[in-house]
């Protein structure tokens, strides 16, 4: 029995079962038969010319290089079509083919693909469906990669923001044990001193003064100057000057100590100041821990609201001011690292909008992140929201050098970027435009040296 012909092998494939035989014959007459071994790669400009490929046996994986990492995004099985397709505007392949085991396929040259579109209607229709599927896959992959990149930027900024309060908690907790031990010892010494009457009232006045003044904020120069003067006073009155730092840190002044010295002898004053200093130190450390924990809580709450991770995607009423504030909070660390100031201004009468919170938050993140990336040192970026007739306008404005005329018309194009290779995919502003249009809004750009403004206009929520 003779081996089946290439036409018969193609016709036997389920994926090609509805293609008329004469079209398969045309395909074979204008194609070359190829066989590749496991692991062989087919790239544009290398080896086999990238024409229209139809797999007869075996499996191709379609892979892409992303930041040095090779990923599989599709597979081409027997009867599958890939390569250069009719009506496709792609001139440079996004990925490349890798044979997973031995693969046999036929290849039609590019110059013959136009004739295929004219002569083989059903086969061309199959190619068009393949092209649409390919676009959907790559588009979905691009969106996934952009979301991952946005998540990476968000996590990097969050890690930086969390580092400071976490370090503050660790430092305060490390010092608290020693301070508590000193407070216990100071309390014992105070008890042994047996303060009564006016002396006890003076101690209570010192404690009250320390609590009332502990919120005072001094500059480093003011603090050092006050500490030097307090140490001199304590040395002159026979009191251990090492406690001057704690007393100054919690607001006690020479005036407070002068008042105490009139009612207490040297021994009582030394014991009283030791206790007040120890008590102030413990309260100060516990306050630092509380403040740092509250900051961590606010950051986590901002991330939760920004990502909307506790709810599924649903159209809802959105108060933009809250979410813009979360975006600014999460991007502040990146801005500060670049020497950029980030300001927020929300008018009081900004109406709510109807939309998908996670999508709009992603748009705000991209706009602010784009402004920071384009900024030079000491640039100011302002995020503003205001009423605009029956709608809302959100502006992201910077006073940087502006966008060159050659780039201004292309900034919303997918994959257009002025960043170095590996630093950007060029999808951020395309995502912004897609999200805004999906919310029946518009995004506009104006730019000149000293003022670049991205303006997003959204319709206000209307009652049902």
Question: Could you list some keywords that capture this structure?
Answer:
464 residues; alpha+beta; Jelly Rolls; Heat Shock Protein 90; five-stranded mixed beta sheet; four-stranded antiparallel beta sheet; 52% helix
Please, could you describe this protein's structure?
- A five-stranded mixed β-sheet has the order 10-12-13-15-14. A four-stranded antiparallel β-sheet has the order 1-8-3-6.
- The mean pLDDT is 81.
- It is of the alpha+beta class and 464 residues long.
- The protein is elongated, with a radius of gyration of 35 Å.
- It has three domains: 6-119, Sandwich (Jelly Rolls), CATH 2.60.120.10; 156-298, no CATH class; 313-459, Histidine kinase-like ATPase, C-terminal domain (Heat Shock Protein 90, 2-Layer Sandwich), CATH 3.30.565.
- It has helices spanning 6-11, 21-29, 110-119, 121-193, 197-213, 220-236, 244-249, 254-261, 266-307, 320-337, 357-374, 405-408, 428-438; strands spanning 31-36, 41-42, 52-57, 60-66, 69-76, 81-83, 96-99, 103-108, 316-318, 341-346, 353-355, 380-388, 391-398, 442-448, 451-459.
- Strand 14 (442-448) and strand 15 (451-459) form a beta hairpin.
């Amino acid at each position: 029995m003779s081996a089946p012909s290439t036409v018969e092998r193609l016709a036997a494939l389920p994926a090609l079962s509805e293609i008329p035989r004469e079209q398969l014959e045309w395909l074979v007459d204008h194609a070359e038969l190829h066989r590749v071994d496991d692991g062989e790669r087919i790239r544009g400009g290398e080896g086999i010319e990238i024409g229209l490929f139809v797999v007869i046996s075996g499996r191709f994986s379609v892979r892409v290089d992303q930041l040095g990492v090779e990923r599989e995004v599709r597979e081409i099985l027997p009867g599958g079509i890939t390569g250069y397709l009719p009506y496709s505007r792609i001139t440079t392949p996004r990925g490349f083919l890798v044979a997973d085991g031995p693969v046999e396929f036929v290849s039609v040259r590019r110059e013959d693909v136009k004739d295929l579109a004219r002569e083989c209607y059903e086969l061309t229709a199959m190619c068009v469906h393949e092209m649409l599927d390919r676009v959907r896959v790559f588009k979905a992959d691009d969106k996934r990669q952009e979301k991952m990149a946005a998540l990476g930027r968000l996590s990097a900024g969050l890690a930086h923001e969390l580092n400071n309060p976490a370090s503050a908690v660790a430092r305060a907790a490390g010092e608290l044990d020693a301070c508590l031990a000193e407070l216990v010892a100071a309390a014992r010494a105070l008890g042994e001193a047996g303060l009564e009457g006016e002396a006890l009232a003076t101690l209570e006045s010192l404690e009250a003064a320390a609590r009332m003044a502990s919120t005072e904020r001094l500059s480093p120069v003011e603090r050092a100057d006050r500490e030097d003067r307090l140490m001199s006073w304590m040395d002159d009155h026979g009191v251990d000057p090492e406690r001057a730092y704690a007393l100054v840190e919690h607001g006690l002044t020479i005036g407070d100590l002068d008042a105490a010295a009139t009612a207490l002898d040297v021994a009582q004053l030394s014991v009283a100041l030791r206790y007040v200093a120890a008590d102030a130190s413990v309260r100060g450390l516990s306050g630092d821990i509380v403040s740092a924990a509250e900051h961590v809580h606010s950051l986590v709450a901002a991330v939760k609201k920004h990502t909307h991770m506790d709810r599924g995607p649903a159209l809802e009423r959105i108060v933009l001011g809250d979410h813009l504030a979360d975006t600014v909070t999460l991007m502040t660390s990146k801005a500060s690292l670049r020497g950029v100031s980030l300001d927020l201004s929300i008018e009081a009468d900004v109406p709510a909008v109807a939309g998908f919170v996670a999508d709009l938050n992603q748009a705000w993140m991209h706009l602010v992140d784009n402004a920071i990336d384009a900024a030079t040192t000491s640039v100011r970026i302002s995020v503003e929201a205001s009423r605009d007739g029956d709608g809302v306008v959100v502006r992201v404005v910077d006073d940087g050098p502006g966008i060159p005329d050659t780039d201004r018309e292309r900034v919303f194009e997918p994959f257009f970027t002025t960043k170095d290779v590996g630093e950007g995919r060029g999808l951020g502003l395309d995502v912004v435009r897609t999200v805004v249009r999906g919310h029946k809004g518009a995004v506009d750009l104006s730019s000149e040296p000293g003022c670049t403004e991205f303006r997003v206009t959204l319709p206000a929520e209307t009652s049902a």
